[in-house]
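Teaching soon. Invent one.


***
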Amino acid sequence: MSQVFMASDHAGFALKNLLVAYVHRLGHAVIDLGCDSEAACDYPDFAQLAVGHVLKEGHFGILICGSGVGMAIAANRHPGIRAVVCHETFSATMSRRHNDANVLCMGSRIVGVGVAEAVILAFLGAAFEGGRHGQRLAKIDR
């Protein structure tokens, strides 16, 4: 199984806490990087912390904020990170298969626990297909 670095801002705090336990039950090693309360905080700080670990140690990140968008924007500022916002399973699966996404972002104001769990299962359960998709990713990296 994989190591999964999870983080949220204050808007995603409650959902993140539920999802940490879920990802652990799936058999992954989970590292909860915060935040630690619903007190206002800045999502870029937690996105940067999580993607630093993903870049250094590999594996995956899961980031939760109100919409998922702010976390994805902040995460994608880092070369080597391919963060996606997914609120349903098809995009989660295809982002792994075709885009080799390594960070999943979700919005706590958009998805409930059940949908979030299904999205995580789809994301972590899919594998990059390589081939022509790898060639396309190389173009992005250039």
User: Anything to note?
Assistant: The chain has one domain: 3-141. The domain at 3-141 is CATH 3.40.1400.10 (Ribose 5-phosphate Isomerase B; Chain: A,). Residues 2 and 28 are 5 Å apart (CA to CA).
